[in-house]
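Loading example: each entry is read as four labelled lines plus one structure line.
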Amino acid sequence: MVAATVELTPKAHRTRAAILQEAERLFAAHGFRGTRLEDVAQAVGIRRASIVYYFADKRELYDAVLADALGGLLQRLREVLLTPEPLRERVDSAVSVWVDYIGERPTLARLVLRESVDAEPGEAPALLAHIGPFVELVRGLVGSEAVARVPVAIGPAHIASAIAGATLFFVGAMPTFVPDLEFDPLSRDHLDAHRREVLRITARLLGDG
Amino acid sequence: MVAATVELTPKAHRTRAAILQEAERLFAAHGFRGTRLEDVAQAVGIRRASIVYYFADKRELYDAVLADALGGLLQRLREVLLTPEPLRERVDSAVSVWVDYIGERPTLARLVLRESVDAEPGEAPALLAHIGPFVELVRGLVGSEAVARVPVAIGPAHIASAIAGATLFFVGAMPTFVPDLEFDPLSRDHLDAHRREVLRITARLLGDG
DNA sequence: GTCTATAGAGAGATAGAC
DNA sequence: GTCTATCTCTCTATAGAC
């Protein structure tokens, strides 16, 4: 494989980025198994064997897609969580970042939902390999005194699934159930309304609703 | 295929039920593509070709699994929604039935999440073929005068995704992110807490929170 | 009803030319 | 860097014996 950090000719760099982009779209739409390298190659406009030049095998391509999408989210979350703002405001900002990021990159919603559901019991899903930094980030917060004083009415797993589940489902799954209608969850209005509701739910779950 | 309603010998009936049960478990765990008929057969204790005697092909088996699981949910929802109780109480009962049914049959959470995410744009997912009765049920309610008077602060799509998404994600996906820990979303305590929160979210979304 | 055996398609990986 | 050609494995579907 050719690592992203290795120096590539401009053309090669474009090819690699195009592969990543099309692979993200197709993995999100059809899953790991359901996506053929043939289709990725065709979408990019190259031959299947050429993908191997950049990514040793299918799994490696998939991991690169996850790393790319999750890396962007992690960066934005760090920006809002690692500030001197009051904790409660940082949490709200993080929730907004979460909703907005998923809204701008809806493929991530499907990728994460797929990873969640595909996980084998006892066997770490590919997602978990990328999730360490997120855990560190949250752990840093939870470890702080400030968090200990927030009256949490309910376990963090419940909070997380309500917030994450609502947004992932809204963006990643609702279009399935309201097909070809005028309903687009990614439209400005619907996403605004969704963000508002998730913020209210967050407040409610944190005990100050 | 041998329809469920056709008269079968007791033994054949048991075999058919066993195939359905193992197929539900495996389809939920690995998805349609990821489940091999070989594995279903092995789990039941028969040979792969024998499955064909009951279900013409893999897709037909999958449809039968969906119909079985969703049929049970529909029946319970009808029981609580088609009563003379005040509408607001019926909605709460329906939400409770939803949470409890998924809690008792967590395979359904994964099946529904998979169907939602697998849906091709422009192409009806298998789930939609089974969902007609649910739509009819809700349409009957929404058409009634009583519903028109409920102050709905937000669109039904948002309400549905918040409620459905939270529960599906909690049951179907959380175990992935909190692996091998002492966390079991299906335990009585956690499911009770989750039901409580979803009922609160419902109230909030319906404007009387 | 349940089995054995096999055909046939699909798709990932690999070798090597240009 | 990108290609053609091929190997190989997996899994569904089918035919037909018992």
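Chain B has a mean pLDDT of 90.
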